[in-house]
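Write out this protein's structure.
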Amino acid sequence: MTGAARKTVAITGATGFVGARMLDLMVREGYDARALTRRKQDARPGVEWVRGALDDQNSLARLCTGADMVLHIAGVVNAPDRAGFESGNVAGTLAVVEAAKRAGAKRFIHVSSLAATQPQLSIYGETKAKAEKIVATSGLDWTIIRPPAVYGPGDGEFLDLFKMARLGFVTMPPDADGRLSVIHVEDLCRALLALLPEQEELTARIFEVDDGKPGGWTQAGFARAIGSAIGKRVAAVGMPKMLLRLGARVDRLVRRGKAKLTADRVNYFCHDDWTIDPQKRLPARLWQPRIETCQGLEDTANWYRQNDWM
């Protein structure tokens, strides 16, 4: 994509786990990127950094002005209270949508979550569902993508599971036969790349993506796969919801604002089906997953070791 054909993508969340990899991919594929950031970033070809935040209208205006499309990845996955989720996921999405409309950027791709399909289970899921409604009623040429659990080198969310696996066990929700879908971060980014161009079949649609494993993984099967990735046989230990709630209190006391297990997360962790809807997959001609999960988990474990995370 060169010369007059180059398109500019305004992107939020570009310094996060998914966004940073998406930024790299877009630049490699010939897009110009305009990326929102709270902190000063090093200059790099193909990227214009815009200092600001989701609650700063002026910075959002600078971000979206002249952009052909907006890719909204930023969001709050963990917060100490409802206000934190509402601010990041609802008010933040509304602000980006309004900035895109004022700037005339017609294409809008929104990264949601499978949690939005069960909004009654958590504040996180409820606020992601609210964000979807904001996008769907925006009048923009929108597409929403709902990833399941995202893993890969550099991810901090799965790190605790790998650390437990080194000890020979992995704790999980009460139902070891409960199912989940997962996706490697690189496959998710390729799916987002496929959504960027205007295509009639993608407009006003919600898609769900995963690693392609039919029916997803059982909780116990995924725990064993993590063990295999680090060369350990592990026991999958189902935890009663009451103990998970106690664990959330302890995690909050120990890690405070950096706690991974929170009361809000306990509710949706205990849900027995976090698999995608196969009817909502992206058209195969546009995208298919490439990274087999066992190999992806092994690559992730190797990255953790090489970077002294484990």
